Give the backbone structure.
Amino acid sequence: QVQLVESGGGWVQPGGSLRLSCAASGLAFSMYVMSWYRQAPGKERELVARISTTGASTDYGDSVKGRFTISRDDGKFTVYLQMNDLKPEDTAEYYCHAPARNAWGQGTQVTVSS
């Protein structure tokens, strides 16, 4: 059974930074593309970032390019999302996703406000 557990969310002021972590179990982690999505109240879930199995290739949503960085540590079965220069519009529930297994984490809340 695949399990994805996010952590690292919280409250931060505009311009601040947070690093989200997603610990995976129940899958051969290094073999899977991993991604982060987010969903704000009243909005559809959207792709934030995606990383290839080797980590050599990454994709980002237009709204986070240049501010967020996705990375992975296969030895720790963990994918990270470094979020810098956070804006109020980044406020959302952030979810870890393993697309090939259609697995989702429970989410971690990020709130950006002054």
User: Anything to note?
Assistant: The first strand starts at residue 3 and ends at 7. Residues 2 and 26 are 4 Å apart (CA to CA). The chain has a mean pLDDT of 97. The chain has no helices and eleven strands.
